[in-house]
Amino acid sequence: MATKTGTSLTTLATIGVFLLAGGALAGTASASPAASASTSTATATATATATATSTSTSTSTSSTTAAATKGVATSSTAPVVDPGPVVITGPTAPHQYRFKILLPTGGRLAALTPPSEIMVENAAGTAIGAYDAPWAADKFGRPLGTTYRIQGSTLVQTVKFNARTAFPVTIDPTYSQIGSTRPAQGARPELLTAAQVSEVTVPANYVYDPTLGSLHDYCTDAPDEFHAPGAPNADFRGPCARHDLCYEGDTAKVTCDGNLRDDLYTNCDYFYGPFSTLRYACEATADIYWAAVTVAGNADA
Length: 301
Fold this sequence. Notes:
5-stranded mixed beta sheet, Phospholipase A2
């Protein structure tokens, strides 16, 4: 999803979420790789000792712990491709979380700005994957300030929260492989009705590669998913990919932008059903994305 030079879609979107939800602003930066599914739960005592439990399914499954030193939680496991979600349970938890990333031999993590992804490069310097902009959400799904930085093969996420934050807080790096398209999530039987919609997925002719520019980068600086506490995340990649392709064609910009909002609404309905409060929050986020591209969208980006 393209924006004009110098205008951050993350800034526009997170300001909108802030105004709608009354929460703290989400941060900007970049995210982490995925080939293994992991689940991490981090808690901390007043002495800043955190325990995290991770389950990795890349080539093996293991349980690990993370020890917090001076407010930094570090995984003690072998590196993984997808660190998985971390749930922060209280204000005494560490503010920094270190994720050891499994890289190809000779590979590295590299920041790409703009937009704000963190790229995974192989030994030849070719990008093979990218992490989406970082996100952190409180128990109500409101965004919190958060950033990423690179330390060698470790991705460090810093999260802003305090005693007034509504815990638990969830963070979860999101990774996409270069050139890949995500498959549809499949039917959700608990939501099937006579009016059940189909998920808007990534078209087969869409090329995901942030190094080619913002028309090959899903939702660019904005999160590629609507992050719902305690429920599946709504996938925004399909609508954003179709919006990029629309900009590349001869369709009027206003039509492309309107189709983006319609497609985002469809996925909100698909993931949460017609009567869920999460659907309303998801659609409010869709309105922010639409407003951002309406104001700052640039089909020539």
